């Protein structure tokens, strides 16, 4: 993505990790923090950029939303709010494993979060990454876990829904009902059922025959409406 007359792209290193900030021609102070996969399925982010939103990404990949990742995110948050004069509350976009980062950051720092859009998020690391994969080994190392302790670990987002929804942060959840990578029933499906059982209002859009990809929606209007709080 190159600079043009409508936006500028600034890439730099912060605390040893690459960061990207995409600024519109006339920024309004509002910002989207996509926690993973900056340019993947980003039609909604591009539309919001045209509306004056700044797009932010901090590449701390393969930390899977760990406590160390959240601390790094906190420092980065403080930096961009101060240096770019952004609003104190951001909109988090958590796609796939990015859901771990978005969920846990909001859990620790809810005062920094305006609203959250999760898309096919990983909410239970027992279901993803796959066993015997490089990613699963990285999860073990990052969280100081083993195959055995992962099963009883209390830090999976799906185990912390009570605390998360007590924060009352507006949530949009989009997922594929046939997701074969991040199983729907064990992740997004469990969150939706939890909210139904507890009478918690969220906006959920399930694409019945969709697998893990494509993310987002063909018509991103519901995402824009949610971010803009248009009440539709």
Could you characterize the architecture of this molecule?
The protein has 232 residues and is α/β, with parallel strands linked by helices. The protein has one domain: Alpha/Beta hydrolase fold, catalytic domain (Rossmann fold), CATH 3.40.50.1820. An eight-stranded mixed sheet has the order 1-2-4-3-5-6-7-8, sandwiched between helices. It is globular and about 50 Å long. The two termini are 32 Å apart.
- Specify the helix fraction band: 25-40%
Main beta-sheet strand count, sense and barrel state: 8 strands, mixed
At CATH level 3, the topology is Rossmann fold
Helix tally? 8
**Strand line-up across the major sheet:** 1-2-4-3-5-6-7-8
Radius of gyration: 17 Å
- From the coordinates shown, what is the CATH architecture? 3-Layer(aba) Sandwich
User: What order do the helices and strands follow?
Assistant: EEEHEHEHEHHHEHEH
- What class would the helix/strand composition place it in? alpha/beta
Distance between the termini: 32 Å
Q: Class, according to the CATH hierarchy?
A: Alpha Beta
